[in-house]
Model the fold of this input.
Amino acid sequence: MSTRILGIESSCDETAAAVVADGREILSSVVASQVDVHRKYGGVVPELASREHLRQIVPVVREALAQAGLKLEDVEAIGVTQGPGLVGALLVGITYGKTLAESLGIPLVPVNHLEGHVHAVFLEAHKTGRAPKLPAVCLIVSGGHTVLYEVKTEDSAAPDSSALFHYRKLGQTRDDAAGEAYDKVAKMLGLGYPGGPILDRLAAAADGAPAPVKFGPTKTRGNPLDFSFSGLKTAVLYHLREHAEYAPEIRKREEGLARGERKFDQLFSLCSPATLGLVREFQNAVVRDLVDRTMIAAEELDVESILVSGGVAANNQLRTTFEERARAAGVEVFFPSRPLSTDNAAMIAAAAYSRFRAGRLADLTLNADPSLSLA
Ligand code: KG4
Ligand code: ZN
Done:
């Protein structure tokens, strides 16, 4: 008999539930995005996030069970995100998880959201049959995090889904997360929220556009594996301020967005070659920084595998650049599929499995930890 874990995720702006068997077989995965709620504010509003989670949590869990063809009584444990994240948002999932676990008389397993992102890579690897070797270097890159870890297990280079991972933090952002930089730059350019997907597509469509500005590599004093993206964001801001010719098209795009015109073609048709070139240079700088530092870490630690997860791991240029650089360096790079890259509960249920097997359970005193660390 397999062990079926119901995962619950509510750390940011996605309410998610999933059922995963034995930490590797996804029986269902449901994600209710709040992006439409937060869009007009250009970012996640914590109070609104909590309220949306409250509205969504029961139907989302019900849907996850229905899609798996299961009843609550068929689940052996509940895995829930304890942190890091927004405290009010986390509390919705934790409170509901506790209530379910208590009423069903089954264990509650606390999960670190970042460990969930690591497990997303292994869920994908199980689907494709190509597994990463440990120790590995893992880059988690999203709207809230940009951090590099060494991931290993006590004994095995090819762990099964019940192995407990150990983490060592190698570097992290000193200021903004990479996804946050995407979101802020898109907002400055009148391209809406979230910024990542639209900037990704515009950069790909910028072939031949002139480069109105070049961004050099960011320097971080001290740890060479630390990241920094706020300087790049500010450089874009100053460039826009110094060149008045961007203002009219930004206004046009903002007016279009206010009318609900946020399809790619609609926005693209309102972008000058200079804007396309600027977007491309911005993305080149972000991707170069993420890939360079990760490759340095992989070389220093002499690992055979690189894992990349989190919302920004959906980025096309990041994926192809990593693949090229990894091939040249003789290492393998692993990504989750795009739906598993962004926040979801299947990764939480997968991470919960090894903790469940190791008896690392929570009781009813479990509290949200907005700054829970992994290493
Ligand atoms: O992991 P995620 O869903 O939530 C957080 O934990 O933050 O990541 C969301 C972030 C947003 O900042 C979004 O702009 C970014 O991931 N993102 C992308 C792409 N798709 C989503 N960034 C760059 N390129 C993409 N294709
Ligand atoms: Zn996340």
